[in-house]
Write a structure and sequence with these properties.
The chain is α+β, with helices and mostly antiparallel strands and 121 residues long. It has two helices and five strands, in the order H-E-H-E-E-E-E. Strands 1, 2, 3, 4 and 5 form a five-stranded mixed β-sheet that branches. Pfam families: Glyoxalase_6.
């Protein structure tokens, strides 16, 4: 019997859920529905969701103090990072470009580090 077949959702708490949802809608284009969340269907483009556990002393999520980080798939990392800068968002200066794709980061209004990922061609 197969037990876990994938990630069914990502859930986290916020001090102001409505304001944080509005930020994700405005700046990242997530279509937050009246029920308070969004659904992503992985049919086009075909994709995968990564799952990983990090050591408690890892600095991977810094400067956020949250014990999690969400990675969102994007089509054009450079253009999105510039748009976020133009909108006054806290975009980290560092980006990574390697065999797994391109990565960039923005800090949401509650201090959570958000990873943006452009898969390789």
């Amino acid at each position: 019997m197969k037990r876990v077949t994938g990630i069914g959702g990502v859930f986290f708490q916020a001090n102001d859920p409505a304001a944080l949802s509005a930020w994700y809608t405005r700046h990242l284009g997530i279509d937050v529905k009246p029920w308070g969340g969004a659904a992503f269907d992985w049919t086009d483009p075909k994709g995968t969701t990564a799952w990983s556990v990090f050591a408690a002393d890892s600095d991977q999520f810094a400067p956020s103090r949250a014990p999690f980080m969400i990675n969102y798939r994007v089509d054009n990392l450079a253009a999105l990072l510039q748009a976020l800068r133009d909108e006054g968002c806290n975009v980290l200066d560092r980006t990574d470009d390697g065999e797994c794709g391109k990565f960039g980061w923005v800090i949401d209004p509650e201090g959570n580090k958000v990873e943006l990922w452009e898969p390789p061609a």
